[in-house]
Amino acid sequence: MPLPAEGHADTIGTIRALHRRRNLLMGQRKAQMLSLGAFIRTILGWHRDAPAAVRKEIEARAAEMIEAGRKEIAGKGNGSDDPAYAGLHSTILACLKGAEPLLREEEIATRAMEKLAKTLPVWPWAKEVKGMGARSLAVIVGEAGDLGSYDKGEAGVWKRLGLAVIDGRRQGNAGKGADAATWQRHGYSPMRRATMYVIGECLIKQKGHYREIYVARKAIEVARAEALGLRVLPAAKIKKGEADGCISQMHIHRRAQRYMEKRLLRHLLQAWRRADQAAPERAIAKAPAAEFHPGSAPADGEGQPSRASTKARRQSPSPTFHEAAE
Question: What is the rounded distance in angstroms from the CA atom of residue 40 to the CA atom of residue 263?
Fold first, then answer.
């Protein structure tokens, strides 16, 4: 792992420690709720061989009971009308109340991470990005550390967060028959990839610059697929035996989102390096996200791309059809 740069090493280290704590608490809380849901569904008669309609009905009943329990604890309801709720009432409430301390500690860690993220030199840039916020910045730092100290620049950051292209294939998709050495080169963490995916979803939901990148890239992916003779269809409409001639709309969506996430990390790294150079002697000039476009390099004080960002771009893989594949 890269070493933090002097000046905000302690802040980065603390954010990373808080991030690990938050992940632990979040994992424990989610596991507890998943176990409760599975228990209720089993009691209600759920099993794999049941018809899909029956399974969905049982799943909905279980979810409704848990939500009714939450409302009851909050003093906003009197439980569920489901006939099975009375027999499960004490168990549901015990599990929900048992998760409350985990949630409180998780929220404390999250607020501390956000507060520290706002002290990082790159924050004036990050806060201008619609859909990002202090929490997203803190999570990226929590997973990747000091972005400015990666020897391979953006390529290193992309790989750390599961967005690289390894041997012409999407990181994490080494292919059938891949040996252990190939998987080691991928260095893939599903959790880190999921972290960036969630951040990307937040950016898409906001009408900002990175949504524009996503929309533009989505149109490109559709055109490329059609140029290859593929039909772009909802996954449900792709019939068996026709898969080779089709690509799902969700696949296109994920390719475009992946591309956009990589652009975000590129621009964040560029802003990080400029902020490191500027602090503490002078304030960071606010740079609205709309200045940055895919493939462009923000200019340094002399009006030319910085040597670090240019070198990193030369080392980074160019976008390919495989790059954005999900």
Answer: 43
